Amino acid sequence: MRPFPSYELMGYRLRQVFLQIFSVWFYGFIAPNSILSGQVPAPVKKPQKIEFLNADEASFDESSTPRVLRIRGRVVMRHEEVMMFCDSAWRYTDANAFIGFGRVHLQQGDSLNAYGDTLRYDGDARMAFLSGRVLIKDRNTLLRSRQITYNLNTRVVSYNDSALTESGRNTITSRIGYYEVRRRMMGFRGNVFIRNTEYTIRSDTVFYDVDREISYFYGPTTIKSDSLLITCSRGYHDSAREINSFSGGATVIYNSRFLAGDSLFYDARKGYGRARGHVQLRDTTEKVALYGHFAETFDSRGYSYITDSLTLILQTEDDSLFLTSDTLHIWEHPECDKIIVAAPQVRFYLRDLQGVCDSLVFIVGDSLLNLYHRPILWSDSNQLSARFITIQLQQGRVHRLDMYEKALIISYEDSTIYNQLGALHIAGLFAQNNLEKVEAQGLAVSIYYPRKEDGRFMGANKAEAEQIWVWLDDRKAQRIRFEPRPSGTLLPMKQADHTGLRLQGFQWLPHLRPRNRADIYRRIVFTSHTTP
To answer: Are 242 and 124 part of one and the same domain?
Structure first.
């Protein structure tokens, strides 16, 4: 199997071949005049003469076409390994050249056949110029144009007056192009359009491997099917093996999904995709956008992941959640909920809620966020922590928060004074993303500093109960209810040991809190003493 040519090598090859084509076209326009005038360029080595094998009649007309023998009827000529046929021809007596007319057929080797209305052939240069209804046929490849130039030395067919090519399952049109017969390679420039039953491709320049059905793109390119739109500035498509590679700001739009990256690769048969550099993945139906620098997808497993400078943006009704982690894993199946897992080093920012944890699971269908391994949340002046935390979203907003095992809420009041609430399970109910009510169940303990009407602290109250309810207004605790009647006393401020009034697992960690969207990328090192 021939190796894939590199983009640089192919670009160089394209430039060289098109330069050759332009020189051939120029020579193609000059050569007929030199033939008619008898000025034939001196060959490097003595060429063989064209053999005229058959004709029904021949005549001279010195008055109108001197030095030209007119031959008609079933004309057959041979020049070295090339056979040529036509209805009539002008044979130049002082040049190794002729012009053929009507049902022209040029045959070289076992596979290449060229047809047209007119053939100008220079035997010394081994150049053929076909015009009219031109057809080039080589095995499974057909090329149609109004005029072509064929260099029999290099075995390169070229055109500059548009052509239509049929090769394998592809139909290709372009303004300028060439076909290297030996290498079975084609080049197209200017409004290149490739069409088959599955998709259409538009590009500025295409390099096409006939046998392997591989198209290499150069310049702005779009690939379109019923449900797919791809744009890129470089890349290749292997239609036989269903392999695609795109670069130069490549984008893919599939149904409601948008994927972009500096380079994209996809193997349709294996269901494997890869994206590198400035990767973007958006789903308009779920209002979720992912950004990173590397991603892979495995269709058969319904799994993909994105990593390297990762960002997840979840649009809410009036705000957006910004999240980062080392890697984001996505599991997706038609019969199951879509699951997104972020781990490790998770940090996120929402205007009214911020958080950090080691791993996060987002069940998209249920709008449920699960935080594992050292989760900490901040809402206004409150710090929330537990072994395991769940966040329920409703219409894109935080609706409910549940904290399990060693659940602890700390509210900052002063440098040494903190309101605290601890229990086995704490639930927080939100309204408009603001914490409105807190329910603590199971060995609930509170440390609360009530205030007088003038704002001064009344004292320190430590209470224990099976259940504790706290109602908040304007982000401050307004009412507390205990069930059953709590045990505890209210200590005057001067008698209370404020630094000793700490619930188990107490740690005030404002330095870990993301302060804004950009702050989520600040790297934090967790230790065993950092959180509960």
So the answer is: yes
Q: What are the angstrom distances between the C-alpha of 379 and each of 206, 271, 350, 351, 507?
A: 56, 43, 10, 9, 16
Q: Is 346 helix (H, G, I), strand (E, B) or coil?
A: strand
How far is the C-alpha of 83 from the C-alpha of 104, rounded, in Å? 11
Q: State pLDDT tens for residues 444-462.
A: 999 988 888 888 888 898 8
* The residue type at 444: A
Sign of the CA dihedral running 315, 321, 327, 328: negative
* Nearest C-alpha neighbor of 450 from the set 480, 429, 424: 480
Q: Who's near 110: CB < 8 A, 6+ residues apart?
A: none
Average pLDDT, stretch 76-96?
A: 93
- For residue 210, the SS3 value is coil
**How far is Cα 484 from Cα 364, in angstroms, rounded to an integer?**
39
Determine contact, residues 274/292, Cβ cutoff 8 Å: no
> Bridge partners of 310?
none
With b for 16 or more beta-carbon neighbours within 10 A and e for fewer, the 136-151 pattern comes to bbbeebebbbebbbbb
Task: Choose the final residue of a domain: 254, 289, 308.
Answer: 254
Query: What does the alpha-carbon distance between residue 407 and residue 440 come to, in Å, rounded to a whole number?
Result: 9
Q: Give the model's pLDDT for residue 514.
A: 95
CATH of the domain at 175: 2.60.450.10
Q: How many domains does the chain have?
A: 2
Indicate if 190 and 57 belong to the same structural domain.
yes
Tally the C-alpha atoms within 13 A of residue 111's C-alpha that lie toward its C-beta: 9
**CA separation for the pair 150, 121 (Å, rounded):** 10
Cis peptide before 3 (omega within 30 of 0): no
Give how far Cα 255 sits from Cα of 232, 284, 298, 412, Å: 18, 9, 18, 48
Domain that holds residue 27: 7-38+49-254
Mark 37-66 as b/e (b = at least 16 C-beta within 10 Å): eeebeeeeeeeeebebeebeeeeeeeeeee
> Is the peptide bond preceding residue 484 cis, with omega within 30 degrees of 0?
yes
Note whether residue 69 is domain-resident. yes
Rounded mean pLDDT, 69-89: 94
User: 231 and 101 in one domain?
Assistant: yes
Nearest by Cα to 314 from 337, 287, 341, 338 = 287
**pLDDT above 80 (res 84):** yes
Last residue of a domain, one of 203, 221, 254: 254
Question: Can you say whether the dihedral through the CA atoms of 498, 503, 504, 507 is positive or negative?
Answer: negative
Question: DSSP states of 257-282 as a string?
Answer: EEEEEEEEEEETTTTEEEEEEEEEEE
Please report whether residue 532 resides in a domain: no
pTM for this one? Answer: 0.73
Is 270 within the bounds of a domain?
A: no
- The total number of residues shown for the chain amounts to 532
CA distance 170 to 333: 34
Given a contact cutoff of 8 angstroms between Cβ atoms, the answer to whether 302 and 333 are in contact is yes
